[in-house]
Task: inverse folding
């Protein structure tokens, strides 16, 4: 079974090599098949890795057999394995959906380019998740940023270019801050491997208190920009709402999450709990910004008139939950964060894909123009409704489970007052998701002149979304097992 | 696995509703037979279930002590479920005649049956969490009924209904989470689950109780959170009657009884003086409801405000925390349900036959529709509480409960409110029967199939007044177990 130890590297290599072979294949169909195949293989390998890690525990993998302070090291624990399974399988489903629709959103000659970028993006995100080396992580961050910009601009419209530039600039600022943070750490410890840095820091941190605080701040802000922590989210609504729907799904569900994982690694693997607890102000700030994001993201979403922007702002709110969990600073908060990452990745991609289908079939993206859509596309809106209910936190759907865990986490952490924030935020969620559903299905005026099922997509094309919804339901129903697994992972993190 | 049968009355109407959504019926008559059969069968099944075994419980999904979907049958649940199922049958038969003129019957009956299943779920919930789920689900299932007409006005009201209900449910959820962190359990137990807890944090408990009371109180139309209820009168009459009589407001009341007596327990509530603060809101509810009802010109709105006030009585019965008052409250829960549904059916019949919905339009209608208005008059008198009607019995017990607490104030409020009730209901009867001017009388009695539910319900009202012991024994039995 030891061959499984090679799989993380193999996954990254398959994706990257695949990306470079694809431009050589002239035919679109080959491209799609090839991209799906590589991502599919990597998700199977991720699954095997997860099983392996679950049985034999965390392992370190030396790339090219160089020992650790010199060579690059990958560190695969349960959490990394879960995340890589999530990233690859959600990316697979999104790509599966895009096979049917991508030509409708981007020009034919860009299709090959799009799939190349997707492969690079997924590979880079996996790299961020796996790596135990700071500089290696930085390289993957940059690669993923470029690829993410690519899948936004691939649509070739004026507003896409504008949104991409905005994203590119802010994202570069973020990477720059991260790089400076790395520089601080490197100058203190002389190491880039996180395990080694941790060893050095635990002995010498008293001497470098200010430098450490600064570098913590730099990492927080830098990665905060990249994963849309409120109020650093300004690039997100433009980028996510203008990109092709499949790209939006990819960006919102996966790209934001990888940086969070990296941030958690920096906090708990590199600095370690001991140092973090020296600076309570840091986690408190993250908690406050997370809470602000939960509330403000939802309020901003209520004010939007464009359906994709609503979903995009909802991502800001959901990222708020994720930072909230980190900010709680206890195990249960961290566990809830991981669970919420899973839940949000699945649900948000389902939301973006359903909304994408609506926009594709009606040609409208304004909320008022989408009234009565429930009569024309009942199944699509039905899938949207289930996802929306999960977002709002109707029990047994995964959204409720994660909110519930956040609530328990904040009470256990002695911050009961933040339960109110969670509840207000779920109410606000209801305020922008329900009108879409209600105006879609009900209302005499809304339904006038609409023909039942006239614009519904075929079952074949809806299959990927259905798979996502089923995955979400399974996630909710078997949440106790998954949470137990995550808790085991967090303990050995 | 025998205990899993408890799921049947919850799921059966819902599955039947979904099946109805899929298949197409040849004509309306067949569809009505199908619906009638489902609802009656459900009642038969519930009775069969209850007669075989009085105490059953079943865990559907258990994730941890809180996230646990757990059903249990107890006497309070039996009372609620029988009340709901029986009134549902009447409403169904009434709706068969009434709904065609509102249109979209298929959608109506789909959600109508769905709501029955949800209501049974509320009655059989064995812990707060399950109750909460069904409470939220109830909002979602009744929403399409409220906005049935689909007009702009209806959608606006629907939004109000959703915001109020979800706001309330969220507060309740906050309370549930807090309770859970204190006790690590939310299962309903007679005399409450907080017994063993050291009461050094009385303030916290008081806050939790207030939060939950206000949260669940939204559906029970507690003033000042009642305004969704009169607004929801845009719904078709059978919906209004159901919302008022059993499904929604009584679920709120039922949840409050569960919270007060099965989670906190009357002793703990005494300790933290939770009842004291709440009773101010309750008194306000009784008086405000009656006063607002006085100057409503729309018949349905007048009845809606009357519901607000009557619910106040039931809440009073809950918060006085003694046996008499709770007996009175539960009795009034039953009586008010039967009376109010009759009143709504009568008003609906008037609208159905003459398209009239304001009081000044119905002068002399008593002579045109003597049976309908006769039933209305009997029910109105019962609600006022003139002996020997059933309203009198429940108010008698409530007054006794108030006196037991040495609070004459409550008895006085009950009397004042009874006067006000007479003040807003009897003028309708008087205008209907004594128009003061002679008109040519044309008989406009509604069709027989509509009259039968009305007359039968009136007969039940009268019976409950003359022989209150039938229900009283059951209720006293319940009360002994929990106070």
Result:
């Amino acid at each position: 079974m030891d061959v499984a130890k090679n799989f993380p590297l193999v996954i990254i290599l398959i994706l990257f090599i695949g990306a470079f072979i694809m431009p050589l294949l002239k035919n679109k169909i080959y491209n799609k098949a090839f991209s799906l195949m590589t991502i599919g293989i990597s998700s199977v390998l991720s699954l095997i890795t997860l099983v392996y890690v679950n049985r034999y525990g965390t392992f370190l993998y030396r790339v090219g057999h160089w020992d650790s302070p010199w060579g690059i090291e990958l560190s695969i624990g349960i959490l990394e394995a879960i995340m890589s399974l999530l990233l690859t399988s959600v990316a697979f489903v999104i790509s599966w959906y895009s096979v049917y629709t991508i030509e409708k959103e981007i020009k034919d000659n860009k299709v090959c380019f799009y799939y190349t970028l997707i492969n690079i993006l997924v590979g880079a995100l996996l790299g961020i998740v796996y790596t135990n080396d700071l500089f290696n992580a930085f390289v993957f961050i940059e690669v993923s940023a470029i690829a993410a910009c690519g899948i936004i601009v691939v649509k070739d419209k004026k507003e896409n270019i504008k949104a991409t530039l905005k994203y590119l600039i802010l994202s570069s600022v973020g990477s720059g801050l991260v790089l400076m943070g790395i520089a601080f750490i490197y100058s203190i410890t002389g190491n880039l491997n996180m395990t080694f840095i941790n060893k050095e820091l635990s002995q010498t941190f008293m001497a470098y208190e200010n430098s450490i605080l600064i570098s913590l701040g730099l990492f927080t802000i830098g990665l905060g920009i990249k994963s849309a922590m409120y109020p650093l989210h300004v690039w997100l609504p433009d980028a996510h709402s203008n990109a092709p729907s499949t790209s939006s799904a990819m960006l919102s569900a996966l790209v934001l999450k990888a940086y969070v994982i990296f941030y958690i690694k920096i906090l708990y693997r590199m600095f370690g709990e001991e140092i973090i607890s020296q600076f309570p102000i840091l986690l408190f700030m993250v908690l406050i910004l997370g809470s602000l994001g939960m509330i403000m993201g939802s309020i901003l979403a209520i004010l939007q008139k464009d359906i994709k922007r609503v979903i995009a702002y909802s991502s800001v709110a959901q990222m708020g939950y994720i930072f909230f969990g980190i900010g709680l600073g206890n195990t249960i908060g961290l566990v809830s964060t991981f669970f919420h990452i899973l839940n949000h990745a699945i649900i948000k991609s389902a939301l973006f894909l359903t909304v994408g289908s609506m926009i594709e079939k009606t040609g409208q993206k304004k909320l008022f123009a989408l009234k009565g859509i429930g009569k024309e596309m009942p199944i699509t809106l039905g899938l949207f409704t289930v996802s929306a209910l999960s977002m709002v936190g109707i029990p047994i759907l995964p959204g409720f489970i994660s909110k519930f865990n956040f609530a328990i986490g904040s009470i256990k952490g002695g911050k009961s007052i933040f339960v109110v924030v969670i509840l207000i935020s779920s109410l606000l969620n209801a305020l922008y998701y329900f009108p879409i559903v209600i105006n879609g299905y009900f209302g005499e005026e809304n339904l006038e002149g609409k023909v039942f099922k006239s614009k519904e997509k075929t079952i074949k094309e809806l299959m990927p979304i259905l798979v996502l919804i089923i995955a979400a339901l399974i996630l909710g129903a078997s949440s106790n097992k998954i949470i137990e697994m995550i808790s085991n992972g967090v303990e050995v993190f | 696995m025998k205990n899993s049968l408890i799921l049947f009355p919850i799921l059966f109407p819902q599955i039947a509703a979904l099946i109805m959504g899929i298949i197409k019926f040849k004509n309306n008559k067949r569809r009505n037979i199908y619906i009638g059969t489902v609802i009656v069968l459900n009642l038969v099944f519930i009775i069969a279930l209850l007669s075989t075994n009085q105490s059953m419980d079943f865990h559907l999904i258990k994730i941890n002590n809180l996230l646990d979907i757990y059903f249990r049958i107890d006497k309070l649940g039996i009372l609620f479920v029988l009340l709901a199922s029986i009134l549902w049958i009447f409403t169904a038969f009434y709706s068969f005649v009434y709904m065609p003129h509102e249109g979209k019957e298929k959608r109506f009956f789909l959600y109508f049956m769905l709501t029955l299943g949800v209501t049974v779920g509320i009655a059989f919930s064995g812990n707060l969490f399950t109750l909460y789920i069904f409470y939220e689900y109830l909002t979602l299932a009744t929403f399409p009924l409220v906005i049935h007409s689909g007009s702009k006005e209806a959608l606006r009201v629907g939004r109000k209904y959703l915001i109020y209900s979800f706001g309330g449910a969220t507060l309740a959820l906050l309370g549930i989470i807090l309770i859970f962190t204190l006790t690590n359990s939310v299962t309903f137990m007679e005399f409450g689950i907080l017994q063993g807890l050291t009461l050094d944090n009385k303030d916290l408990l008081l806050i939790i109780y207030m939060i939950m009371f206000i949260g669940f109180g939204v559906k029970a139309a507690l003033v000042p959170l009642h305004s969704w209820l009169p607004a929801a009168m845009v719904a078709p009459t059978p919906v209004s009657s159901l919302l008022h009589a059993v499904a929604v407001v009584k679920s709120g009341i039922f949840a409050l009884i569960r919270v007060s007596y099965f989670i906190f327990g009357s002793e703990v509530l005494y300790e933290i003086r939770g009842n004291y603060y709440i009773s101010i809101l309750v008194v306000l509810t009784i008086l405000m409801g009656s006063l607002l009802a006085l100057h409503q010109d729309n018949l349905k709105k007048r009845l809606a405000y009357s519901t607000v006030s009557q619910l106040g009585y039931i809440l009073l019965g809950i918060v006085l925390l003694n046996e008499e008052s709770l007996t009175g409250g539960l009795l009034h829960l039953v009586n008010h349900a039967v009376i109010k549904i009759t009143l709504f059916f009568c008003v609906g019949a008037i609208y159905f036959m003459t398209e009239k919905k304001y009081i000044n339009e119905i002068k002399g209608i008593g002579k045109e529709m003597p049976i309908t208005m006769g039933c209305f008059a009997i029910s109105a008198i019962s609600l006022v509480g003139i002996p020997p009607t059933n309203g009198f019995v429940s108010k008698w017990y409530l007054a006794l409960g108030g006196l037991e607490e040495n609070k004459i104030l409550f008895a006085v409020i009950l009397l004042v409110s009874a006067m006000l009730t007479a003040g807003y209901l009897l003028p309708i009867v008087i205008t209907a029967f004594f128009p003061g001017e002679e008109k040519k009388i044309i008989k406009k009695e509604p069709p027989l199939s509509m009259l039968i539910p009305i007359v039968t319900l009136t007969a039940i009202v009268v019976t409950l007044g003359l022989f209150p012991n039938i229900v009283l024994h059951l209720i006293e039995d319940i009360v002994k177990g929990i106070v």
Observations:
- The two ends of chain B are 33 Å apart (CA to CA).
- Chain B has a mean pLDDT of 85.
